[in-house]
Known about the structure:
single chain, 867 residues, alpha+beta, six-stranded mixed beta sheet, 22 helices, 24% helix, globular
Amino acid sequence: xxxxxxxxxxxxxxxxxxxxxxxxxxxxxxxxxxxxxxxxxxxxxxxxxxxxxxxxxxxxxxxxxxxxxxxxxxxxxxxxxxxxxxxxxxxxxxxxxxxxxxxxxxxxxxxxxxxxxxxxxxxxxxxxxxxxxxxxxxxxxxxxxxxxxxxxxxxxxxxxxxxxxxxxxxxxxxxxxxxxxxxxxxxxxxxxxxxxxxxxxxxxxxxxxxxxxxxxxxxxxxxxxxxxxxxxxxxxxxxxxxxxxxxxxxxxxxxxxxxxxxxxxxxxxxxxxxxxxxxxxxxxxxxxxxxxxxxxxxxxxxxxxxxxxxxxxxxxxxxxxxxxxxxxxxxxxxxxxxxxxxxxxxxxxxxxxxxxxxxxxxxxxxxxxxxxxxxxxxxxxxxxxxxxxxxxxxxxxxxxxxxxxxxxxxxxxxxxxxxxxxxxxxxxxxxxxxxxxxxxxxxxxxxxxxxxxxxxxxxxxxxxxxxxxxxxxxxxxxxxxxxxxxxxxxxxxxxxxxxxxxxxxxxxxxxxxxxxxxxxxxxxxxxxxxxxxxxxxxxxxxxxxxxxxxxxxxxxxxxxxxxxxxxxxxxxxxxxxxxxxxxxxxxxxxxxxxxxxxxxxxxxxxxxxxxxxxxxxxxxxxxxxxxxxxxxxxxxxxxxxxxxxxxxxxxxxxxxxxxxxxxxxxxxxxxxxxxxxxxxxxxxxxxxxxxxxxxxxxxxxxxxxxxxxxxxxxxxxxxxxxxxxxxxxxxxxxxxxxxxxxxxxxxxxxxxxxxxxxxxxxxxxxxxxxxxxxxxxxxxxxxxxxxxxxxxxxxxxxxxxxxxxxxxxxxxxxxxxxxxxxxxxxxxxxxxxxxxxxxxxxxxxxxxxxxxxxxxxxxxxxxxxxx
Length: 867
């Protein structure tokens, strides 16, 4: 019998039982003791052309003749196992970056892989092989967050190539483990390599970076992921790069990735990116030609956004062979790469029964929840503090206001799992200050009001039962026989519900107990809401993902006939949610502030506003991206109104990108950037306010004063972008963050004052906690290159997060490699140039006002470095 996992304890996909046979007759590919390459060659030699082609899509097909079951390559684990039910939800990736803590991020990756293996084992146990249940994860996203308008920047590790490379390698190493021959799971570095918006243009956009910017900004993190992180997979991009679609680019996929960097894994396309080669880029004249162009350039596995098996996903490869655009050898080359990873992951071997037995105890375990809390603590960035923080004595009365204060959604970010429980900012404050009177008011009429499940008390069936009648049908028309029926208290369905039953409908009556304006939503994919016979929500429309909500006016006591339909989809999720708009919300927040000793305002944006391509278009947001850096107006009015009461104002800023909070910087007493902080985010925020957590997070992105400081969003030139090339004055610089402790730097000593080009440089510095409070410090090493053409204004070349007791000193050591000492010239060549260099090691950039020590050294001679 072949099941999955391997002899060292990795779970793998459940395979159908093989026919009983003598060991001497067993195929080589079934023998786990054989070398991987020999097993791959043996399996390939037994497959027909049609069977080979059936493995080129992410949704690989079963091959019953060889007793091989289906496997789905597409799985998500950006900051926790995603889209597969309950899992630990760590802070969003941008929050991970704000920790500047490499060992902690590797530990996080290891926890995520453990939950991924456990979930996979449970799927094996249930005989399932669905989307999001595998061991090959499309994470991390190591694109450079070059512009704060990009909605998906929250998924990255920020704007700096060095920081992104270090964090990306740490997360990959945590996911895959330390044994390259037996990886725990497979990570995917995405999106290779020039990709950061605009979202609405991504399918047909042509990014044209200069040779300098390509090598200096867009490639370094991917190079680190491949060479240092040994990542098993790389995802190519939707957009074109210099006129060639990314998934058909021999320059990127062959010359750079495989020839220069010696990448040994496989390349997967972004989902539907191969079709884009034909339909959006018009680079070729047919789907078959698009498939051929991608495969020959080096894309080994095609991801498609579909539900179930679609023969056309494979047929175009056969058609390409018939037309002479591809050969069977091209197919074999791609399959060798994907099959090798599947064998290394143990997907053709037997599962360790201990993994399945202990799976449930691993998922969102107390240990992982504690780790999520620690990451959230370290991600907190204190942007302003006039001395009000920490709150040494618990205030008698606290007003917690803002639409995000009691929001679970803002904790999650995007590409997220579902926590078993979550602590909002409001809950965190109440737990941290149990003796205080805490009053909560959202303060906004509409903006970011948390949608809650429509309660059973306002739902009824035709025959008077509380709730709605749920029915499953055989097809989308929902006119045939009912396959299964029951009464449910609310509308709730996820990927683990009722396996094999696809077309669901809830029907009955909605009777509000209050009149007013409501927002009604069917959260998830492929959902429809009908109210009194009128279709009001339809997320199955053609085009980009549709908003799953509608604003309606409902009358108290009126019975509205309601139906909610859910069809097969990638996530198979639906939740019926609503919120009643409160026209007196602002007045209620002001009243609460007047009665309080301190006001804590949780404001910002959410991953429903900034994120992946969408149809959303409201002031400040379009298609997933941002059109303004300003705080949303209703939240600004809220802050101004409560501050006018004269009470101290502490702002908790929640976002996945930089907000231009100019008013708050001038008028608030303190500002704490909390990102999308994960399931224990509210605990971390409250602990930071109380001083239980001493903040030491640093900004992985520049916070600009406004959109007028930025170049055109679609321009991929790095001129005047990010701290490395921005010549203006930011609101808060990259690397910035305050603490409740004070630190001093001294005795910065480069090992040499004059260095021959091509030699490494050892550096040491002493850092001391000069305060009476224990705390963490993030020591950052920046290099300035003099007047070398093409060099950045300054560049991060090292960092260490360390804990120092009050009065404690420590000597830190850094080694700058020849590559660290190089810059990229205008031709795109890495070069170490002669001249004078400056070193700064401190708590931030050298010009930021953070404590630092400065030294100088010179380089003699010149050396060019290989790619």
